[in-house]
Design goal:
Layout lengths: L1 H23 L5 H6 L1 E6 L2 E2 L3 E3 L6 E2 L1 H13 L2 E6 L5 H6 L5 E2 L13 E9 L1 E6 L16 E5 L4 H12 L6 E5 L2 H9 L5 E5 L3 H7 L4 E4 L6 E8 L3 H17 L1 H8 L11 E2 L4
Parallel strand pairs: 1-5, 1-6, 9-10, 9-11
Antiparallel strand pairs: 2-3, 3-4, 7-13, 7-14, 8-11, 8-12
Helix pairs in contact: 3-8, 3-9
């Protein structure tokens, strides 16, 4: 009789525990839960966020590790879908993918089509060739110089805003480039004097190309990198928000930041649409 009572008590504890676990489980939209996967778009050309490992050609980077960790938290597989930057927003609006996780900046101008679960703080930062670092001891030395940045981003507008505020009658001469890799190429070739890209990328680049680049000053704006999701998919937004916060709480987020030299870009908690 005593064994029966003990067994019943244990069963009751297990039932309550299961109910609590279910209550705290992250709930996905039914169609995604049924499919068992989240389709995620990316462009793997922005190290250390996402890139193809030159040795193995496999997807690598902070966003890849974060995405796989999110998949485990959500109990689904991440289906990575390579596309072009220009196709990011159309792919979200037409439902070709469920999310974009690709070093994508949260701007208010994008909120009509996508909502962002922000997971990283970043900002555009000037850098120059290490061999010319002595010419740029402060940011004011950039005035009147040729500065390149990807024309597909908001960096041109941020550079112009900073130039108008700082340089007066000797503004920066902006040079639009075909992405950040092109800006670095033009910088190394001496076709521009300085370049701008997100400060989250510079420590990694300086590590793999030692003696090549030197940062100048502080970021000229505060931005947020986020997971872009369809505006109407409120359940998916909430699920992603909870999953990111769970990774922050269990230490996974901190470990991944350290791995990819992004500790200075950490957020204490995830946000939705914090971008301006």
């Amino acid at each position: 009789m005593k064994r029966v009572l003990v067994a019943a008590a244990l069963f009751g504890v297990m039932t309550i525990s299961a109910q609590r676990t279910k209550a705290w489980a992250i709930e996905l939209p039914p169609e995604i839960a049924k499919r068992g996967s989240v389709k995620v778009a990316l462009v793997p050309n922005y190290p250390p966020m996402e890139f193809r490992d030159p040795a193995t050609n496999t997807l690598s980077g902070f966003d890849i590790d974060l995405g796989e960790a999110l998949g485990r938290k959500l109990g689904v597989k991440i289906e990575w879908t390579e596309t072009s930057f220009a196709e990011f927003m159309p792919s979200i609006s037409t439902g070709r993918v469920d999310a974009i996780l690709s070093g994508f900046t949260d701007y208010a101008s994008r909120h009509e089509i996508a909502s962002f679960v922000d997971y990283l703080r970043s900002g555009p930062k000037f850098f120059v060739q290490q061999s010319r670092a002595s010419e740029f001891k402060d940011m004011a030395a950039l005035c009147g110089k040729k500065v390149g940045a990807s024309r597909r981003t908001m960096f041109p507008a941020e550079i112009d805003k900073w130039s108008q505020k700082t340089c007066g009658s000797n503004p920066i001469q902006f040079v639009g480039t075909d992405g950040s890799a092109d800006a670095r190429t033009q910088l190394r070739q001496g076709r521009i004097d300085a370049a701008v890209q997100g400060n989250e990328t510079l420590p990694y680049l300086m590590d793999i190309e030692p003696g090549t680049y030197a940062p100048v000053g502080e970021p000229i704006a505060t931005q947020f990198t986020g997971i872009a999701l369809p505006v109407k998919e409120k359940a998916l937004q909430q699920a992603m928000l909870e999953a990111v916060d769970a990774l922050i709480a269990d230490g996974t987020y901190k470990t991944l930041l350290a791995k990819w030299k992004l500790t200075d870009n950490a957020l204490e908690k995830a946000n939705i649409n914090a971008g301006q």
